[in-house]
Amino acid sequence: MFGNPFGAPNYNFMQPNGPLPPLSPFASPSSFASPSSFASPPLSTTTPIVPTPPPHVEENYEVKFASQMAELLEMGFTDKTANLAALIEADGNLDKAITILFPDPNEQ
């Protein structure tokens, strides 16, 4: 229909700077890029670049453990500072936090 009469797709329309010039079977080898131009740059002998870890983000434990804090307050544990410290130590586990706040005297 358009372009190449041999049926091969015409990819020239996809080039950002317009169509490519047609390749000539008689082009000299010097008109082509040398293999060295495709090689990777030489490796550096300097210290390798190590990605830095993301900055430490301070967790907002009051938000993270809000539901557990509400349950502790409903149970009568009114010291919010102690509750939060117990929840942080128990990683949010309500049963462990209660054990921390009100240790069982029979367990030793």
Write the layout of secondary structure elements.
Layout: H1 61-64, H2 66-74, H3 80-89, H4 94-101
Helix pairs in contact: 2-3, 3-4
What is the percentage of strand-forming residues? under 5%
| Largest beta-sheet characterization | none
Shape: elongated
Number of strands: 0
Provide mean pLDDT, rounded: 74
Report, as a whole number of angstroms, the end-to-end distance. 90 Å
CATH topology of the domain at 61-101: Helicase, Ruva Protein, domain 3
Q: Low-confidence parts, pLDDT < 50 over ≥5 residues?
A: none
Q: Helix- and strand-based class?
A: mainly alpha
| Helix-strand pattern | HHHH
How many H/I helical runs?
Answer: 4
Q: Helical content, roughly?
A: 25-40%
Tell me the Rg in angstroms: 35 Å
CATH architecture designation of the domain at 61-101: Orthogonal Bundle
Report the CATH C-level class of the domain at 61-101.
Mainly Alpha
What does this structure look like?
α2 packs across α3. The chain starts with 60 loop residues before the first helix and ends in a 7-residue tail after the last helix. The chain is mainly alpha-helical and 108 residues long. It has a domain of 41 residues: Orthogonal Bundle (Helicase, Ruva Protein, domain 3), CATH 1.10.8. Helices cover 29% and strands 0% of the residues. The longest helix has 10 residues.
